[in-house]
Specification:
The structure is a homodimer.
Chain A: H1 5-16, H2 22-29, H3 33-45, E1 49-51, E2 55-56, E3 65-73, H4 78-86, E4 91-97, E5 102-109, H5 112-123, E6 128-141, H6 146-156
Antiparallel strand pairs in A: 3-5, 3-6, 4-5
Chain A binds a DNA duplex through residues 21-24, 31-35, 37-38.
Chain lengths: 160, 160
DNA sequence: GTTCCACTGAACAAACTGCCCAGTGAAAAC
DNA sequence: GTTTTCACTGGGCAGTTTGTTCAGTGGAAC
């Protein structure tokens, strides 16, 4: 939908201090409350802001091990595999990617030993031909959005 | 830190309707406001809840293409490569993984053609020996946390 | 039996929200 | 050139929520 610099600054402010309300937002942006409200509504209804759900840290829940598994799927078994993986709570994310019927999923586990259990459960299905797993050691760049927002706001060229 | 069923329900409620406040939360949980407040504070200070930042959809910002790139890094070049990738706004996430000096990063781009530009920028560095990219076609399971929270709350055995 | 701790239920002032309105300026349409 | 449209401003209002504090209760640990 495209965002201008004001939208960009609004998103940055929200990313830095999510608890601030519309009023405080408008103060920091130097605009009227109605404007901040309208911008926020537009970003939300336009799908740019999907929501404000809590960002939960799996490690703090007792799942400090993260891994990415690449799965090779037998022809036509895709839907079954998806349904299967959806039932595994340790599967946090699943993508289908280009390549020979591949899927990529993000897993967490209580320990390296526990990861074996998770993987066994994940691959314990007919449709999965092969799985290769990479265990995450460090996370130098956690999921971030601000740089992209800044880029998108600049590209729009509009003031803000 | 471990969570009990009440914490679990609280997290689920927040995940479903993030805008509700502490008062509404306490009403739905059937506890006093102070209790909901205290639980929320504990989860936040304990690191389970990292924050309530807006979940921004890159597609709505004009970046509908997502890809995962596996990078093979030359010995000792890790830190330089990290620093380099941090400067690329289209790099949303970066992990170092087990394997031969590998990194895994999540990219977005404005189009498949634009992805080439992003990848060129990503690999445009001495330390990177090889890069293989998988373009995401579908995302059957978007990043989710509720099933894991439920699991963690059950495992604790405590009431809620 | 005492202490500790989480929870309840209540109160209060301060702040925020949702909602409304009239007025302004600039760009677009006629 | 005139009119219309639209985003923004700045203000007001009632209702609700928040931050904070307090006394009282019940269970568990010591």
């Amino acid at each position: 939908m495209g965002i201008d610099r004001l939208d960009g600054r609004l998103l940055e402010l929200l990313a830095e201090e999510p608890r601030i309300g519309v009023l405080e937002l408008s103060r920091r942006l130097g605009v009227a409350r109605g404007t901040a409200q309208a911008r926020l509504d537009r970003l939300t209804s336009g799908g740019v802001i999907r929501g404000f759900g809590p960002q939960v840290d799996p490690a703090a829940l007792g799942y400090p091990v993260t891994a990415f598994a690449t799965l090779e799927i037998k022809q036509g078994q895709g839907p079954d595999v998806r349904a299967h993986l959806t039932t595994v709570p340790e599967v946090l994310e699943l993508h289908t990617t280009t390549g020979s019927g591949d899927m990529l999923c993000r897993l967490v586990a209580r320990s390296n030993a526990d990861l074996q259990r998770v993987i066994d459960r994940v691959v314990g299905m007919e449709g999965i031909v092969r799985a290769s797993t990479a265990i995450v050691m460090e996370n130098p760049v956690p999921l971030r959005i601000v740089p992209l927002v800044r880029q998108a706001a600049q590209d729009s060229g509009a003031a803000g």
